[in-house]
Amino acid sequence: MNIIDGLNKAFDSRVRLGIMSMLMVQERVDFASIKKTLDLTDGNLSTHILALEREKYIAVKKQFIDKKPNTSYTVTKAGENAFKSHLTALEEIIKKSLE
To answer: 14-25 vs 42-54: helix axis angle to the nearest 10?
Structure first.
């Protein structure tokens, strides 16, 4: 097995890596917060959110807060497992490079 086989292609994008990193440490994050933190356009963020949704790595919740629409996201169990595996693979690459 090649050392990079453990890396998950869904997290190749730095934006998706950023989204997942935020969701791993916060129970729920809304669209505006992700957009501001990662300094993204609506369209760019939407594209990456959709990619993570298709993989079933994040769940979407749409609601109204003070009569304003609010969309927020949580990481799913599958997403949590996939991201942790990705991080483990990165750690292994780092360890191998230090040998």
So the answer is: 70
Residue 80 makes CB contacts below 8 A (sequence gap 6+) with: 24
Say which DSSP state 28 is in.
Answer: -
* C-alpha closest to that of 12 among 22, 20, 23: 20
Is pLDDT of 1 > 70? no
- CATH no. for residue 38? 1.10.10.10
- Asked if residue 98 belongs to a domain, the reply is no
**What is the mean pLDDT of the segment spanning 20-26?**
97
Task: Residue 39: give the domain boundaries.
Answer: 10-93
Q: In Å, how far are 28, 57, 58, 99 from 50, measured between CA atoms?
A: 17, 10, 9, 39
Place of tokens 């760019």: 44
Domain count, the chain: 1
Among residues of the chain, what percentage have pLDDT more than 70? 99
pTM of the model: 0.91
